[in-house]
């Protein structure tokens, strides 16, 4: 087993039997979702997010932090390739909020080719991210441990949707064109620096749970979901409570010399955030 896989398994809860098959792909996907939280802490601190292999591994594995799509799916792509999967990254346009104009390509996802079929894997879309790969086929409802998804096909574009309150909600659209590392650098810079980027104005975290539940955090508002039901929620009173919850419930590392952060740093950046935002999923 490679050093990367050994370190990834140490971070995510231990090794699995490894074969290049769909059962292994599903198991690896869920294990990543449940161990490495989605978060944008570096954007709000603010710190530059580096996408080279070493920086991503140092942060998400060694420092026990999380990250967003460019980091999460970058790391997961490397893990899958080390196991032996044929995998490459794609770029999508986020349309979850029904933007008035077509947005830029700011979401990284993965295409896996396996036994003559193509699968979409994605461990980096926050609260609604896939927790299992889905087949690249149109209009087929596909179950994951955390909900129903489907893909629509419009010419060369595909649209990923999830089932929400008995309705289909579009998440992002993408094509299968080749993308390059510089494309990720551009999308990452836009996501972290564009003045209207939601990553700049909200602290966001999500960790999926093996039982089908998930934990979400929007600024100071914490929610534990079980499917569409809220089983626990709270408005945290201050940055100290937020700092503790990040570590205790999301498993966030805070002590690394480079990628950690202090309570004082968190308190300073959270001073401008709402303490009681509307709950979101």
Automatic annotation (TrEMBL):
MF terms in GO: N-hydroxyarylamine O-acetyltransferase activity
Stored Gene3D superfamilies: 3.30.1120.150, 6.10.140.1930, Cysteine proteinases
Keyword terms: Acyltransferase, Transferase
Keyword Glycosyltransferase: no
EC number: 2.3.1.118
Pfam families: Acetyltransf_2
Superkingdom, taxonomy of origin: Bacteria
Family assignment from sequence similarity: Belongs to the arylamine N-acetyltransferase family.
PANTHER family named in the record: ARYLAMINE N-ACETYLTRANSFERASE 4-RELATED (PTHR11786:SF0), N-HYDROXYARYLAMINE O-ACETYLTRANSFERASE (PTHR11786)
Name of the protein described by the UniProt record: N-hydroxyarylamine O-acetyltransferase
Organism in which the protein naturally occurs: Pseudenterobacter timonensis
High-level lineage: Bacteria, Pseudomonadati, Pseudomonadota, Gammaproteobacteria, Enterobacterales
Encoding gene (name): nhoA
């Amino acid at each position: 087993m490679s050093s990367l896989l050994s370190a990834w398994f140490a971070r995510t809860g231990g090794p699995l039997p490894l074969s290049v098959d769909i059962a292994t792909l599903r198991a690896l996907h869920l294990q990543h979702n449940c161990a490495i939280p989605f978060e944008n802490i570096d954007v709000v601190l603010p710190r530059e997010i580096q996408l080279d292999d070493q920086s991503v591994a140092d942060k998400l594995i060694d420092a026990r932090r999380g990250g967003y799509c460019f980091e999460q799916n970058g790391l997961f792509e490397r893990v899958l390739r080390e196991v032996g999967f044929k995998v490459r990254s794609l770029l999508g346009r986020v349309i979850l909020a029904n933007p008035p104009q077509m947005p830029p390509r700011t979401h990284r996802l993965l295409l896996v080719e396996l036994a003559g079929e193509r699968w979409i894997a994605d461990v980096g879309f926050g609260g609604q991210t896939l927790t299992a790969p889905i087949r690249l086929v149109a209009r087929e409802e596909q179950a994951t441990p955390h909900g129903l998804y489907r893909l629509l096909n419009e010419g060369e574009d595909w649209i990923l949707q999830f089932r929400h309150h008995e309705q289909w909600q579009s998440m992002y659209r993408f094509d299968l064109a080749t993308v390059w590392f510089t494309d990720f650098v551009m999308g990452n810079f836009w996501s972290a620096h564009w003045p209207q980027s939601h990553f700049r104005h909200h602290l966001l975290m999500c960790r999926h749970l093996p039982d089908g539940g998930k934990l979400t955090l929007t600024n100071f508002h914490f929610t534990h979901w079980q499917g569409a039901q809220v089983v626990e929620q709270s408005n945290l009173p201050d940055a100290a409570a937020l700092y503790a919850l990040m570590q205790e419930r999301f498993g966030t590392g805070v002590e690394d010399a480079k990628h950690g952060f202090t309570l004082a740093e968190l308190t300073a950046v959270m001073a401008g955030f709402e303490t009681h935002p509307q709950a979101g999923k």
